[in-house]
């Protein structure tokens, strides 16, 4: 009985110590908290200046995680973490922009 309680206690402690990763809202091979997701300084898209540091589709901070696709909309350049997010934004860009204005 003591062994079962000890195993249960160890399992509970170990499961509580795991860092919960925030899943990306689209079907991407990465998570928003992934250590390997930080922006690549060799990627030329990461050196551009964008109208916002946020990917409006998934709310990922592209200044931290990097840009893999862009779009110019109404004269402003926006960066996205993926083509999926860019395409999602382009379905209703004015709605995303209105929702994210400060």
Automatic annotation (TrEMBL):
Disordered: where is this region? 20-40
Could you tell me which residue ranges the YHS domain spans? 54-97
Classification via Pfam families: YHS
- Domain of life, per lineage: Bacteria
Question: Any transmembrane segments, and where?
Answer: none
**What is the protein name stated in its UniProt record?**
YHS domain-containing protein
